[in-house]
Amino acid sequence: MIDAPVIQTRALTKSYGRVEAVRSLDLVVAPGCITGFLGRNGAGKSTTIKMLLGMIRPTSGDGAVLGRRITDPRENVELRRHVAYVSEDKRLYAYMTVEQMLRFTASFYPDWRHDIAENLLREYELPRERKVRALSKGMRTKLALLLAFARRPDLLILDEPGDGLDPFGIEQLLQSLVAICAEGTAVFFSSHQIAEVERISDRVAILERGRLILDLSLDDMRESYRQIDVVFPGLPAERDFQIAGIRRIRAAGHQWSVFASGNADAIVDRARDFHASSIQVTPVGLREIFLEMAREN
After folding, report:
1. 186-190 vs 34-39, strand pairing mode
2. Count of alpha carbons within 13 Å of 185, Cβ hemisphere only?
3. Distance from the Cα of residue 176 to its chain's centroid
4. Residue 129 — φ and ψ, nearest 5°?
5. What is d(CA 81, CA 151) in angstroms, rounded to the nearest whole number?
């Protein structure tokens, strides 16, 4: 039996007047893995997350989180019992101390993990008696993350979780995400830090102007995506290079740069058919794919 998706949307759309913030989104997030959610500012990532959590209502379409419909008020309340969410602005009660925030949050969750909370309190070096308003931006981020991690959620949704963290704090965050996923919690997080996403994600979804333009596993990316730089003594016509897998050809004189999502061997063979004097095949990272997909759309 195949495990049901932890997130699944069908034609999910949110419009503000004539502006479509999210357009007919069909998104599937698998259980037991870390999924990175990428997109430029204004691409619709935060709007999508807020619809998933029932914070805003979709204009049309529907979706389910942990099998519960996001547009059904009762089911939405129930799903939030099993989802931990850290928002982009990391809202906390400023008048409380760190200790008070811990006790207050723990009181809502019978399965609160006191051992995780204590370990992270020490690891993050959070001062128990300091008020939230007196914490640095990075410390507030760490406190918000601690409150989410200690809940033992089935699904962890994070919106720009690394905001305000220094490089050491980022490393702690990434290690924590890998650890919580290993214990069975699915992780869905948006970020502008592509290197972080590539390091720990099993899968990545890219949103551009409200549309899902790419959804692939990182293993498939590493296996399939290539940049192929070719030098020809005489120039072939681009129509002779209409080969499956080619996403883009940039020509500069006798040198072509081919961006391919697969079928690299066939592309190289075709280049040899045209007596290419130089062929260089290079694996492509997530940053290059993200930039290329954004240019295409």
Report:
1. parallel
2. 25
3. 16
4. -90, 0
5. 10
Measure the CA–CA gap between 55 and 133, rounded to whole angstroms: 25
Q: What is the pLDDT along the chain (297 residues), one digit of tens a residue?
A: 347 899 999 999 999 998 999 999 999 999 999 999 999 988 999 999 999 999 999 999 999 999 999 999 999 889 988 999 999 888 899 999 999 999 999 999 888 999 999 999 999 999 999 999 999 999 999 999 999 999 889 999 999 998 888 999 999 999 999 999 999 999 999 998 899 999 999 999 999 999 999 999 999 999 999 999 999 998 888 888 889 999 999 999 899 999 999 999 999 999 999 999 999 999 999 999 999 887 776
Whole-angstrom distance, CA of residue 158 vs CA of residue 122: 22
Burial 67-80 (b: 16+ CB within 10 A, else e): ebebeeeebbeebb
- List, in order, residues 6 or more apart from 171 with CB less than 8 Å away: none
Residue showing tokens 């650890």: 179
Strand partners of residue 208: 211
Report the distance separating Cα 72 and Cα 63, nearest Å: 10
